[in-house]
Amino acid sequence: xxxxxxxxxxxxxxxxxxxxxxxxxxxxxxxxxxxxxxxxxxxxxxxxxxxxxxxxxxxxxxxxxxxxxxxxxxxxxxxxxxxxxxxxxxxxxxxxxxxxxxxxxxxxxxxxxxxxxxxxxxxxxxxxxxxxxxxxxxxxxxxxxxxxxxxxxxxxxxxxxxxxxxxxxxxxxxxxxxxxxxxxxxxxxxxxxxxxxxxxxxxxxxxxxxxxxxxxxxxxxxxxxxxxxxxxxxxxxxxxxxxxxxxxxxxxxxxxxxxxxxxxxxxxxxxxxxxxxxxxxxxxxxxxxxxxxxxxxxxxxxxxxxxxxx
Length: 310
What we know:
Blueprint: H1 16-32, E1 47-52, H2 58-69, E2 73-78, H3 90-99, E3 104-109, H4 114-121, E4 126-132, H5 138-151, E5 160-164, H6 172-182, E6 186-190, E7 206-207, H7 211-215, E8 220-223, H8 239-246, H9 250-253, E9 261-263, H10 276-279, H11 286-305
Parallel strand pairs: 1-2, 1-3, 3-4, 5-6, 5-8, 6-7, 8-9
């Protein structure tokens, strides 16, 4: 089949065959990570700009590594040191990037919809959504499903995924629900009522107020980070109480299916949403998620900017 996408703004743009093509391509890209020389010339001569208006470590570095491993030229454009801090509009920033000859822009922004805006303003460059507000984080979702897919014989059909934590402020959860369901998994959400959207059905997953019932029989327990930078005062009493009620400790994990995988998008708040014994345990895929992120983003950049037919 042919890959027809030039941008990736959200997971819902992909069909199941397209996502499976991407996952298959990521396998080949991950093989490159074990080579003594990791670079290939697939995007040689291409200019990629990483445009981050919010702090990021894993996503930004993962994209940068993916771009460089594919041979692209890379510019990291931090909003704090750019003309946007002097009042330049996003439209003018977009036109500046176009004038510089950017072939692709990877953007993270605190306002939902910015990647779509850039897609309309940039006539030639591909746009990749690295997180827009609390709306979407498609590449995180793709690396998450890829990580589980690798460990489950390349099939997610019939798996039960429990996502627990701060659903209200998470840019990850909406994209993850879409991605896991597209590949045949069942998703259940759990977390304090104060950290849940009013209409959880709109996310496409069932809300279970009891975390024990939510993880009962789960194949994957995915913990969402408590986003303290989003002013959560009053939405839950204390970190200790949150951990006792909603945190993933060994007692809660005992209710999941034996051998259930543990996942977290990072950075981890140890002793809040997850205990160290669980985060560092034998069933944790957290570090594998980081590795998968490089491979999946390499595959995505290659497909959208290089194209292929299979």
